[in-house]
UniProtKB/TrEMBL annotation:
The keyword Transport does not apply. Belongs to the CDP-alcohol phosphatidyltransferase class-I family. This is CDP-diacylglycerol--glycerol-3-phosphate 3-phosphatidyltransferase. Keywords: Lipid biosynthesis, Lipid metabolism, Membrane, Phospholipid biosynthesis, Phospholipid metabolism, Transferase, Transmembrane, Transmembrane helix. It is an enzyme of class 2 (transferase). One of its GO terms (molecular function) is CDP-diacylglycerol-glycerol-3-phosphate 3-phosphatidyltransferase activity. It comes from the Bacteria. Its EC number is 2.7.8.5. One of its GO terms (cellular component) is membrane. It is found in: Membrane. It comes from Rhodohalobacter mucosus. It catalyses: a CDP-1,2-diacyl-sn-glycerol + sn-glycerol 3-phosphate = a 1,2-diacyl-sn-glycero-3-phospho-(1'-sn-glycero-3'-phosphate) + CMP + H(+).
Length: 186
């Protein structure tokens, strides 16, 4: 979680070295997150706090990555799409915390796993592209010309739609659990 704001602050700079360092920080954060969870499960040293903190750390890093994108090109990566992704991810994380505190388990759907995979592929591609665009000369111009194709824009629309859909599906599948819990607390 501590690496996410450092990554964000370095990435939004228009300096090739700072942006390159930020990508290394992002990669290290993602890899350590993966191996941390893998080792904890393999050696059965998972804690309730770790199970809670791991997805939260994922969200911080992912949100930091998405927040960087409009700084590259607000036309390709519109703020409204970023806001929808952040609201969905924080909302579902908040519901997970709510459920966990009541010893309930939210059902996960395959769409959530697909959403995560698509978000990560898109995010890593867009962040790498944002680094490459800083190169000078013909290569930099060639990379910048990709923006004119609106591929990132339509990719952002697709990622946002999938993200919002998976959030709605989470709510629909788990609604009885929350309605029942709310009725008990009334």
């Amino acid at each position: 979680m501590a690496m996410a704001p450092v990554f964000l602050l370095l990435y939004i700079q228009d300096d090739i070295w700072l942006r390159g360092i930020s990508l290394v920080i992002f990669a290290v954060a993602a890899l350590t997150d993966f191996f941390d969870g893998y080792i904890a499960r393999k050696y059965r040293v998972e804690s309730k706090f770790g199970i809670f903190l791991d997805p939260l750390a994922d969200k911080f890093l992912t949100i930091a990555g998405f927040v960087c994108l409009p700084f590259l090109s607000p036309e390709q990566f519109p703020w409204w799409a970023i806001v929808l992704i952040v609201i969905r991810d924080l909302g579902i994380t908040g519901l997970r915390i709510f459920a966990d505190r009541r010893n309930l388990t939210m059902q996960t759907r395959s769409s959530a796993k697909v959403k995560t995979a698509i978000q990560m592929i898109y995010l890593y591609t867009a962040l790498l592209f944002g680094f490459l665009v800083l190169f000078g000369g013909g290569f930099g111009e060639m990379v910048r010309s990709v923006y004119e194709l609106d591929l990132f824009y339509w990719g952002m629309i697709a990622v946002t739609a999938i993200t919002v859909y998976s959030g709605i599906e989470y709510l629909a599948v788990n609604r009885k659990m929350f309605v029942t819990t709310a009725g008990k607390n009334a």
